[in-house]
Amino acid sequence: MGGKRLLSGVGTRVSLMEKKRVSLVEDFQRYFTIERAATPAQLESVYRVRYRVYCEEFHYEPVEACPDQLEIDEFDAHATHSLVVHKASGMPAGCARLVRADEQRLMPMEKYCAAAIDQDIIRSFDGRRDTLCEFSRLGVDGAFRRRPGERESRFGEISALEFSTREQRTFPLVAMATILSALALSEVIGRPYCFAMMEPFLPRLLRRSGLMPRPAGDLIEYHGSRSPFYWETREGVSTLEDEFKEFYDAILADFTASTASGQHSPSVKSDVL
């Protein structure tokens, strides 16, 4: 999972909700769309956000490894992606993915952080690893983590953007929208058990929103201090605060409808990048 600044806005949501009279869904959807990324253009947007966040900004991955400015790894071939897009500019604001496991295929955390994981929990899924996924590569573009009034950015095209005060107030919700979109995807693709490597602050912030991840191991150093957690999606969303439960239900309804219409059928090519 990304650095603390990626999700700092989630911790401000209480004061934001107290000030708002328009519902969370109505106000956020005024400015953003939330998509299941499956087309080549959508996937390119996902990988470009990841490049900006993971390579240029936080330096988790070397810039030199991505000469095309798209951050892609071996796990994307069997991942499902979500994308948050700013309507007015068409600019991708945030992304996340779910990496699907199976009886032969490891999740990223199993490959890179195995020593930290409680193997008894992992073994409890023997024979049903097709219910597992890993939530990873959460990214929120720096333009949508600026505070109202900030005009400078080291990304040239971002510094040229102008956002209204009202829409900037919704920017702290981009991270939560990205998290909820991944949860909704886990239902849509039938992977109800989600694992994630999290920095210590993130489970605390998620719990304040009503999502209660369960510990799945010990602290480890991997791009900073991180620990494994997991949750079962339906159980997790049942405890969400009302605002976020409404938000989640709207995202899930959109994803379910688009899947039923064939908009994201397996025939869509997603491996051209």
CATH architecture type:
3-Layer(aba) Sandwich
Number of strands: 8
Would you tell me the structural class of the helices and strands? alpha+beta
**CATH C-level label:** Alpha Beta
Mean pLDDT: 85
Largest sheet: 8 strands, mixed
Could you spell the SSE succession in H and E letters? Answer: HHEHEEHHEHHHEHEEEHH
How widely separated are the two ends? Answer: 23 Å
Number of helices: 11
CATH superfamily: Gcn5-related N-acetyltransferase (GNAT)
Whole-number tally of structural domains: 1
Helix content bin: 25-40%
Choose one word for the global shape. globular
CATH topology term: Aminopeptidase
> What is the radius of gyration?
18 Å
What portion of residues belong to β-strands?
15-25%
* Uncertain stretches: 14-21, 152-160, 265-273
Can you walk through the features of this model?
With 273 residues, the protein is an alpha+beta fold. The protein has 11 helices and 8 strands. Strands 1, 2, 3, 4, 5, 6, 7 and 8 form an 8-stranded mixed beta sheet that branches. A hairpin with a 3-residue loop joins β7 and β8 (225-232). α8 (173-188) crosses α11 (242-260). The two termini are 23 Å apart. The model is unreliable at 14-21, 152-160 and 265-273 (pLDDT under 50).
